[in-house]
Amino acid sequence: MNAKPVLVWFRQDLRLQDNPALLAACAAHPIVPVYIFSPKQDAEAAPGAASRWWLHQSLVALDAKLQERGGRLVIRTGDPLTVLQELLTQTQACGVYWNRRYEPSVVKRDKHIKETLLAAGFQAHSFNGSLLFEPWNVATLAAKPYTVFTPFWRACLGQASPPPPAPAPKSLRFTENWPHSMQLDELGLVPKITWWSGFGEVFTPGEAGAQAALRRFIKRPLLDYKEGRDRPEADGVSRLSPHFHFGELSPQAAFHGASQALAKGDVPAEQAHAFTRELGWREFAYHLLWHFPHTVREPLNSSFKNFPWGRDPQALRAWQKGETGYPLVDAGMRELWHTGFMHNRVRMVVASFLIKHLLLPWQEGAAWFWDTLVDADLASNTLGWQWTAGCGADAAPFFRIFNPTLQAQKFDANGTYVRKWVPELAKLPAKFINNPSAAPSAMLAEAKVTLGKTYPRPIVEHAFARQRALDALASLKQRAPRVDVA
Ligand code: FAD
Question: For the whole model, what pTM was predicted?
Fold first, then answer.
């Protein structure tokens, strides 16, 4: 064991278990665990308001875990390179260990940090702490990145299986020369407007909460995940996405959790595979972000650059507030506001509504999600919005326009999800809850619904909106094939 300490720079890997940077560092050195809040330098990856709430809770949890083992988390803010250099001097540490991130401006910054530290004679080691497969290790036979999911995932599964998660280090040896740390509250992460008070009813941020959520999911929802994952009212999904985003759980832990349950015969193969396939979509999102970093702002299919988007702040506001007059859309947007989360099926419906019914740019929706989702993730959010807009990799074609009423009737037939999030419609019978405009007036009166007063009329009529979207698509004069992603 080297007597000189090293800094372990925690970022989106806020856990002790299966943390390669931490494991490598503490195998050879005493450590100084560090978190640096650097929204300016994180640029497009700087956390939105809901994510900041989560980050605060997660840092509390990580600090508590370190304190249990005799250490603590040193918290700083500012330009990461400057802060790391200060800490190296103050602690007389000989290097920095961290797990990689993949957002374009963070990649550029980290490269510069590594080069500067190495040039100054320090150690600088980075590891894969958040993906099953590094984006540069998966390529087509023509050595190109994948742009279609199924062959991508097949290629991933053809590689060596992801290693099982490593346990947390048995013991940690810390520096004896602790540098100054800010108080977490000084970062001002928890938003002053307390709309987030419902988040904690649904989630327990931190490593222990993540592991408990995985155990719970494997025990029950995984058993019929393939069917349950499409029903927003059911307890059918894992809700692990924010835990993955903040690195409180490694994807290896989830992948192996499902694989082990399968090997023990606790879960049918088709259910386990349906779940690991979704983990594959997360990998695909990172693969695309790495190879096509411009897609954070621009469509992957460049022919969509000239799409005639509209501008309608009032409609955008109605969408954000869940007051569009389409119950499933409104339920989703209100679930998001209240819990910081939205079910995947509903994410697709609300995104499609913004893009195709309101003809507003997908970037507007991505920005709102970025600020309000606790799992806001640059890779997955970009993929989700571009997929829905028909301009991304392996995307749903633009001309396939979801009818939000039919989607609701298919995936929330009894209106349970809508009843929960749009309580002013709760007394309507299932037949009309997803289409209150079609209900007879006596029934509306009995259910105490006054359209335009207690619940909005649809802000746009479906058939009109559908035709307008198709006309907009037709007006894209030349729809180039995916020249940029051959
Ligand atoms: P589960 O169904 O339990 O799936 C397990 C894990 O697989 C998830 O935690 C997630 O890591 C991964 N996964 C599942 N579906 C997808 C997918 N379509 N794309 C990428 N990974 C997936 N996911 C985010 O994590 N952050 C985002 O900012 C985000 N924005 C989205 C925006 C839109 C418009 C859409 C349509 C989807 C978005 N998604 C995003 C993907 C997906 O909706 C969420 O990952 C999923 O709903 C999280 O719930 P869960 O953990 O219960 O998922």
Answer: 0.97
